[in-house]
Design a protein that fits this description.
- The chain is mainly beta and about 400 residues long.
- The chain folds into 3 domains: about 50 residues, no CATH class; about 100 residues, Jelly Rolls (Sandwich), CATH 2.60.120; about 140 residues, Jelly Rolls.
- About 5% of the residues lie in helices and about 45% in strands.
- The protein is built from 2 helices and 29 strands.
- It has a 5-stranded mixed sheet, with no helix packed on it. The chain has a 5-stranded mixed sheet with strand order 12-14-16-19-20, with no helix packed on it.
- The N terminus is likely disordered.
Length: about 400
């Protein structure tokens, strides 16, 4: 009994410490900061950290509660190719297909399933604005950069326009017929779709809608030589399924001069006193645009003016002269372009006058020009003053 008491007293005086355990290769060598270390013949280690209770697999210095240096395999019978491992709200993980796992995260949804798209061949949609090189899109599609659309060259006598076509250029050697896809079928559902067709030949291209559909209530339209058309699908099953947005000739030069544009200006019953130095007349400016792509151009400028001169003294008849020039603003001055004189037939009478001013220019560089008509009152020995009462101005551009 005394021996038992002595043994118990000895045990109670021993301080129990946590042991370090090493298993595997180099059993007598263990790192100071680990409680348990398993070392394989290849040098890989499984360790349990002494200080932070971290577990390392393949590393002797784990940086997290579980630190694995190498591949991880998790099998529970639900794993499969292409699946992702994702946790629930409680932190329990499981294998899921991407569409199901990211249904609330994936921004592109499949048209057929209304969940996250699984394939790059799915028809997809997004309910938010989309920005390309734009982090804050304020439109449905905001593109900060260039935009390339599909182009196709056609040479056949007939062509069925496809749903993914956009710009079609006809380069055949005979007349051709283009047929549009159905604009109102469930398969198309292409309201708002636009096609552009350019006829670069000397032959006609006929464009037919599908079935009983129409283009601006017409059963077909013709694109003549060197013309183009842009048509828009309205989505209407009755009336005009397609409408013409733009129908215009191309830049191909006509054989003879044709009117390209006209512009007008002028005033009536507005008195403008003439100065004795060259001064631009009011309401007489003509703005002209010269198009590119033509071999030749002609510009005809014309002003028709009327007004009156007033005698210097009551005992003399009124008489004087006017000189005109044209300022091509920012470029040059064409001077003089007209001299004209006026005189009254008796004393105490005003001298009324008209002045037609015409000028033409040839083969101007493409661009926009402003022309000002300027006038000065000269030969003032027998005139007190003169004024303009009205101006009619017109500019006509011809191209060839």
């Amino acid at each position: 009994m005394k021996k038992l008491i002595v043994i118990l007293l000895c045990l109670s005086s021993i301080t129990i410490t946590i042991a370090q355990v090493k298993i595997g290769q180099n059993p007598t060598t263990i790192q100071n900061n680990t409680n348990l270390e398993v070392e394989s013949s290849s040098g890989s280690r499984f360790v349990v950290s002494k200080d932070s209770s971290k577990v390392g697999i393949g590393t002797s210095t784990p940086g997290a509660k579980l630190d694995v240096l190498g591949k991880v395999k998790i099998s529970d019978g639900t794993e499969g190719a292409g699946k992702v491992f994702i946790s629930n709200a409680s932190g329990i993980g499981s294998w899921q297909t991407p569409g199901t796992a990211f249904a609330g995260i994936e921004p592109w949804y499949s048209q057929s399933t209304n969940v996250g798209a699984l394939s790059n061949t799915d028809n997809i949609y997004s309910m938010g604005n989309i920005g390309i090189k734009n982090q804050t899109p304020t439109s449905t599609l905001a593109v900060n950069g260039s935009l390339a659309r599909k182009y196709k060259s056609i040479i056949t006598a007939t062509y069925q326009v496809l749903s993914d076509d956009y710009f079609l250029q006809y380069k055949g050697t005979a007349t051709s017929v283009f047929t549009l896809p159905s604009g109102t079928s469930a398969a198309c559902n292409c309201q708002g779709r636009v096609y552009e067709i350019l006829n670069s030949t000397s032959y006609e291209v006929t464009v037919n809608p599908n079935g009983g559909e129409t283009i601006d209530s017409e059963n077909s339209i013709k694109i003549l030589a060197n013309q183009s058309v842009k048509i828009l699908n309205t989505g209407s099953a009755s009336g005009a399924t397609w409408t013409i947005v733009q129908f215009s000739p191309t830049k191909a030069s006509p054989a003879n001069y044709e009117v390209y544009s006209t512009s007008f200006n002028g005033k009536v019953n507005t008195v403008e006193t003439l100065a004795t130095v060259m001064t631009a007349l009011q309401s007489a400016d003509l703005v002209v645009t010269i198009p590119s792509g033509y071999a030749n151009n002609r510009v005809l400028l014309r002003w028709d003016l009327w007004g009156a001169g007033y005698p210097l003294v009551s005992s003399q008849a009124a008489g004087g002269s006017l000189v005109f020039d044209i300022e091509n603003v920012g470029n040059t001055v064409y001077s003089p372009v007209l001299y004209t004189s006026f005189a009254s037939v008796a004393t105490l009478l005003n001298a009324r006058f008209t002045a037609p001013v015409a000028y033409y220019l040839t083969d101007m560089a493409p661009g926009t020009y402003t022309f000002k008509l300027r006038c000065a009152l000269i030969d003032t020995a027998n005139v007190h003053s003169a004024d303009i009462r009205g101006i009619s101005a017109i500019a006509t551009v011809y191209v060839k």
